[in-house]
TrEMBL record:
Keywords from the UniProt entry: Membrane, Signal, Transmembrane, Transmembrane helix
Pfam families, per the entry: VASt
Gene Ontology BP, a term: intracellular sterol transport
GO cellular component: endoplasmic reticulum membrane; endoplasmic reticulum-plasma membrane contact site; plasma membrane
Name of this protein: VASt domain-containing protein
GO molecular function (one): sterol transfer activity
Biased composition (Low complexity): 241-261
Annotated region (Disordered), positions in chain: 241-267
Record's subcellular location: Membrane
Amino acid sequence: MLDLLQYLHHLRLVVPAAAAVVWGIQKLQHKPPPVPAIEPVAAAPNEGDEVQVELPSDKAPQQPFAEPAPLKAVLLDLTLPMSLAAVWLALFHNASSLLADFHKQLEDRDITVASWRKTRDGQRRRVLRYTTPLKGGMGPRQALNTEVLEPVQLGATGFVLRSRCDSEGVPFAAAFANHIQWVATPSGTHSCRLVVTGECQFHRAVWGPLKGQIERESSKGMIKAYRTMGRMLQQQYGAVVSPSSSSSGSGTGSSRRTAVSPNKHAAGRLSVEADATAAGSDAAATAASGAGVDLAADADGANIAALLANPQTNAAAFLVIVVMMVLLWRLAVMQPMLLQAVRGMATAVAQR
């Protein structure tokens, strides 16, 4: 009789624990319903009137151009056989379709590229919105992105443009944003150097190891995307990797990699900075990109989807599984009959 009471006492603890483990496994395996497609960009009242943003004439009085410090990851460092004004028109003019074509090449959906608008505070902004499919086995199926471009400096001797991309529908999206900086300067009579850098910036506290993982995956995603931009600029405008970048890389960090490596068949290869863009155990590999520009690629081309597929990003479910498994194990050791029951339950869950 005493043995029966002890068995029932253990069973009273095991049944809720087993149910919690099953719930945790189902939570990790749960696939959320598809997020509805993003609506086209509409002109909100605070967006202001549509304007055309152009570079000032080289005959107008010019302020000294102060080239800003680059962001952590070098995404592009190209020389285009075009004037500074022509580069601006090709990339950022209201009539240009290059940004929309860029996101189509990335297989983004629901792409809208608004015209430049002057806001009430006098700033000029351009808003891009697009949906990025995520291919991870678990986690969200897509991310809704809003990217806001703002000119920082516009002159006949160079321009600086920055953008901030915020995402919705992914874990920790409210804690960080990806920033891109475009810097263009004349490099000759009829040529222009374009340097694009990026980094992930946090505006809310995130647990240390997870923060590092988000930074690495975000940087890898940006580098992978801008390889496509590099190929487009090469094919459409004859861009080549800037020769001067083979001897000086942009960014910070003692373990920084050189931005460009020489190539006898092309102008060079674009590499990434180890301190912000190294892929953990995945070594960066060189990938051929066609007729002229070889840009560094991660071996598996991993992106933010790899982070979202990690069960540890679902902290609650992961913690429940760990705690309950420990509890079940301790109870099972105390009672061989319970050990057999736990084994049977684990087999049933594994066969699902």
